[in-house]
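Review this:
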Amino acid sequence: MFKKLVMPFIGKNVNVPEKILENDPNRLSLEELQFILLLIRDSSFKGENVQTVYNTVLKLQNQYTTLQHIKK
């Protein structure tokens, strides 16, 4: 009968403590991210996979950039 209205939370400038990032065993290191990005750069993909590859590379680049800023 009643609709529940919820405003979504969007955090654009959220600072995650460095310790949390370092303790995550599933987090890729800077070197691992570099390695994967280089493998993707030197590969070829079918047209049907381009969008998926693009989205994946974008996420990897974002993680790489974040780690670079933390390491400095």
